[in-house]
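Researcher: I'm preparing a figure for a lab meeting and need a structural model of a single chain. I don't have an experimental structure, so a prediction will have to do for now. The sequence is pasted below. Please return the structure as tokens so I can convert it later.
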Amino acid sequence: MTALRLDVIRLGVRTRRAGETLALVDAVDLTLQAGEVLALVGASGSGKSLTCAAALDVLPPGTWREGGTVALEGVARTGAELRGRHVATILQNPRSAFNPVRTMRAHAEETLRALGVDRARWDGLVASALSDAGLADAERILPLHPFEMSGGMLQRMMIALALLTGAPFLFADEPTTDLDLVVQREILDLLDRLKTSRGLGILLVTHDMGVVARLADRVAVMEAGRIVETGPVMDLFYRPSHPATRRLVHAHLSLYGLEPAS
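Model: Understood. Here is the structure written out token by token.
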């Protein structure tokens, strides 16, 4: 049976500076299948997050999508059609994603209400999503406000809200950046389990090659708004062909006093 597939085709993002139109993302092609992790890597400012935002039509002010298609199983979809139904999103700073005056229960109920889920199913769906995200004690977690929770708990809650949507794809934008090392490992282990248990296709946006080595099946490398190299994760670590990839690998290995393979 063929896995569900999401294709980003010739996607572009533009902005205007000093009266000139500039390309921030240029003709990007990506393919993500359910049940795999595709890491989108590159230096800061290379266009990784903008690519995800453009695919879902949530670009920041002053930028716009120019050209390109996002297709689910070969059928073109708008960002509004994809968001929350086919593609869920988790962010690098979970605290900024929650309303500080609303409880976790209110956030979960808002998600289910937006999806039109029958209210009779809410309690079971919420308990299952929290359990799968590593928050087994739902009755303790749901009354809490964001300020009462650690960063790791909030990231798990954000993952639980993503699971509530039932979306087969997850865009994870630097999901471990603001977490300590122990919690980073736990979140990566969780995403790896969800890839298998729920068959999620995960687009992992990161600049951390250690995260890539731990979680990714395939890698796409961005530089200056373009995809410059793609391939299986081990190929990019041991046989990088583009200078941008070699720089990322070399920087990662040098942190541990290692030398890249010649």
